[in-house]
Structure to design on (450 residues):
DNA sequence: TCAAAAGTGTTAGAGGTACACCCATGG
DNA sequence: CCATGGGTGTACCTCTAACACTTTTGA
């Protein structure tokens, strides 16, 4: 008997809104099954495109967003995960910076919206599983690879980084120890620029130095929180 | 245009032969393409079986081996990775214990053989990529999860564990510090049994206590080398 | 001048790393 | 009795974790 299995790609796209909260991009489904329900963006792979190309294409079509970081997460293949037919889904997770985030939030054309990861609507298919796995992965990954910077503006005050980590990890962090540790890696450039956000002393801006990171990595010096 | 993509599963199965060396199970292909060349075992997924079921089935059919540990690795989907048509492969890696290992080595029925990971033949398709990724993953994973025990007999002398780690990590380890650290987790039961292997003082046997491991894990105590 | 956020050092304790000799057995 | 692999303790040093006050600005 001929194999009859469809292949789709789906992406859990994270954004960081320095309220602080971590958000996920969801779309409202236009067609059955699960019509009118929320789902993570994605769709079927075309015959001659790569999986990465497919996910970029779908995200552009459905949400207009462009990710700053993308990584394969897991492949979900349970035989009954789609009520129509056998569909396996190669899931990815993506990270976007706040400026992109803002644009995405305005793109109502396709009915895409950001949701706080602690306040999600019910999701179509097995998308809650996918989302849970993505959250676990991001949480674990920010402790040993510097992917957190992909959720911040290119130039950011140190407190944004602090808040991102303590929000994602779900626990308070010691500001002094955290700053000491991060700066000791020498992967951040301190800029001669300050930013003031309402009350309080203005903060110095920092920039993640990717070249320096790769150099240090090749010397065996690892990022780790 | 209708989607026409095939889905296969492939598994990189590791065994540990306390020579010491780490081996991978390969099969010699019977049919084109790449007829007569070595490849990692795998095959097409049936319409109504799960991906895990598919990989277990294929491994039984092709090599007669039963894995002690299996984990999804990555999904390879480049449009040209199979010369016949579009095929995406969900890759897994598996670990087997030496007793299973021995049986597998004898199962010549399907022309399956073990190869030292440092002395491999050229591989069909993109299987070298898959293998590289699997090796990287296993190497990284044994440092933060106790999967190494799935490569040893249920009861093993401590030196087997030492040799496994130093072989996989590709560097010498300090015997005293390693033993101190591993035993400090309290995940190993020391048995009242010794084993003698040729010359030298007989070694005490140990056993990995899985229940204790999960208990400690739930208390937040993590395995880490 | 007050509220709010940024910036900054020290100390005690835990954990990691380096290191060498004796023990038990088989041949 | 000798070759081979098994088993063990200590000291230094680095890294982590705990902890509170001063500075700079906007309102």
């Amino acid at each position: 008997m001929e194999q009859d299995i469809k292949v789709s790609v789906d992406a859990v796209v994270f954004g960081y809104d320095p309220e602080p909260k971590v958000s996920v991009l969801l779309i409202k489904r236009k067609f059955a099954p699960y019509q009118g329900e929320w789902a993570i963006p994605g769709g079927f792979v075309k015959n001659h495109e790569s999986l990465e190309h497919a996910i970029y294409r779908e995200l552009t079509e459905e949400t207009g967003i462009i990710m700053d970081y993308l990584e394969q997460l897991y492949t979900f293949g349970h035989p009954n995960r789609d009520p129509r037919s056998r569909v396996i889904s190669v899931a990815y997770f993506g990270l976007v910076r706040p400026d992109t985030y803002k644009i995405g939030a305005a793109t109502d054309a396709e009915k895409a919206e950001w949701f706080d990861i602690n306040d999600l609507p019910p999701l179509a298919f097995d998308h809650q599983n996918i989302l849970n796995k993505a959250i676990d992965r991001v949480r674990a990954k920010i402790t040993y690879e510097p992917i957190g910077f992909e959720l911040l503006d290119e130039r950011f005050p140190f407190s944004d980084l602090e808040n991102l980590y303590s929000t994602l990890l779900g626990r308070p962090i010691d500001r002094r120890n955290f700053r000491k540790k991060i700066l000791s890696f020498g992967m951040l450039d301190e800029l001669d620029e300050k930013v003031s956000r309402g009350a309080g002393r203005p903060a110095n801006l920092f920039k993640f130095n990717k070249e320096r990171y790769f150099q240090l990595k090749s010397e065996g010096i690892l990022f780790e929180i």
